[in-house]
Amino acid sequence: MYRLLSLICVASVLCSPLHAEIYRHTDEQGRTVYSDSPRDGGSPVDLPPVNTTPAVSPPPPAKLDRHATPVPASIKVQIIQPRDGQVFPNGRIPTAVNVKLQRPLRGDESLRIAVNGKTLSRGSATSARIERLSRGRHQISAEVLGPNGEKLSRDTVSVVAHWPNN
Question: 133 lies in a domain?
């Protein structure tokens, strides 16, 4: 009983502003004033119905085929340091190799950084350090490897190392 009475009271309080009259009158300075209470010389304002738009129902969720094999998203690897063609005046000084990936590696992917085909680093690290480069031209490569060791992406730069006094 109390719930029904409370519901009726709340509904009447909420609905009363929807049916309130709006009045227009002019104040002492000649400005038009709108109010919800009638004044001397005021007239009721006829308002058009409130614009409403029906709610848009969302589309049903797409059904996923659990038996379909997922298509691997491509990945791009780029060696950002050292630059291609860079010359190192002293190959005895350690050299940093930094790699940029288009997206993070997935759990079954790895990054391999190599110098002249010899693995320097393999895992998820995007940087490595070459302790010493012998005199001459060297190939530095970075490869993203898939779960079975297949190459998904590769970048290679060529550098030249000199040794002082030789």
Answer: yes
Contact 103, 111 (CB under 8 A): no
Q: Is residue 131 part of a domain?
A: yes
Lowest-pLDDT range of 50-64, 79-93, 111-125, 134-148: 50-64
> Quick one: how far is CA 139 from the chain centroid?
35
Per the CB < 8 A criterion, the answer to whether 103 and 88 are in contact is no
Q: Is residue 152 assigned to a domain?
A: yes
Residue 71 lies in a domain: no
Domain count, the chain: 1
pLDDT tens column, 17-28: 555 688 888 888
3-state helix, strand, coil in the chain (%, to 5): 10, 35, 50
Mean pLDDT of 67-81: 76
Q: Which pTM was predicted?
A: 0.55
Distances 23 to 13, 15, 20, 32, 41 between C-alpha atoms, Å: 21, 19, 10, 10, 10
Q: What is the span of the domain harbouring residue 83? A: 77-161
